[in-house]
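Aim 2 progress update. The chain analyzed this quarter is reproduced below.
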Amino acid sequence: MTALTGLTFTGKSWTPKFLQAIDFARCLGCGRCLKTCGRGVMELRPMNEEGEFVDDEDDEEIERKVMVVANLENCIGCEACARVCPKKCHTHVELALAPA
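Predicted structure tokens:
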């Protein structure tokens, strides 16, 4: 298998790495990655003390908010979210292509 590659404007080879997961235990919920991504890949979700997601944002049991991958199909592999994350909680992978 080979990795998906592209070219930069100057003709350099570039391999995109796509967002796969966010480590909730490390995430501060600061929103820096959300603001950086213009493609709507992530969203902030509230959690309770037990680490379970809460649907009602007005719920008094909300302990904190964390970033989650909401629309994986929108990721273009630029890794901008990981570059602005102070806790380095994003996991990215290369897309492997099957031989033709």
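The first helix runs from residue 32 to 36. The CA atoms of residues 2 and 42 lie 27 Å apart. These observations will guide the mutagenesis experiments scheduled for the next reporting period.
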